[in-house]
Amino acid sequence: MASLRSGTGRYSGMLRCTQCRMFNRNKDQCLFCEYDPVASTATKLSEMSTRRVSHSVARMTPRVLSDICKDHGAPTCNLAVVQLHLNCVGFTAIDECISNYPEVESLWLERNKVEKIEHLDALKRLRCLGLNSNLIARVEGVAHMKHLTMLNLCGNRLTRLDGLKTLKSLSILLVADNQLRSREDIAHLAECPSVQELDLGGNLIDDVGAVEVLEQMPELRILVLERNPV
Predict the structure, then answer these.
(1) Average pLDDT score over residue span 94-98
(2) Which letter, b or e, does each residue of 179-209 get, where b requires 16 or more Cβ atoms within 10 Å of its Cβ?
(3) Could you tell me the pTM of the whole model?
(4) pLDDT tens across 61-70, in order?
């Protein structure tokens, strides 16, 4: 279960949401992903179960997105929606209809069956993108995201990290539990100078040369390498 935890250093006195990994000062609810650490586990499971029953169709459609927004009390006008919570719905793909929400700043598509990052070109204001626990094999479809600060791709099928060099605002990159092995697989991280937090835990990295790549990331402050052979 995600929670809010106290920060240290320059983030002292602030709270980190372990769902979206962002720091904020609101102790009752994350200002970025709206995670509420006070809500009971039973309530969360009940809401998740309701969404699964209501949206059992794995295809993303305008009607399904509209219904999910209503479930979360989001504005009825697409242009007023700034957060989309599409977790655990069973989507197998990101449909073009998601472009109907161009003002979205936080998109959560965790624990679905998405195989490809696509059709997000209209979401130019996106700051947080959660795609963990899907079936994604390549980092693509994100080059236009100039304002993206957090990208979560943990628990996918990534064998190589590239396609990130245009993300000049990216500060948090979470790619744990993938299939990254060698220095070559993560070499493109050297093109991500703004990344401050990097989670590579639970991969298959056994190449000590990977450390040389990480040394080329000048802003890196938090690094997770646990559960790797190296």
Answers:
(1) 98
(2) ebbeeebbbbbebbeebbbbbbbbbbbebee
(3) 0.81
(4) 999 999 999 9
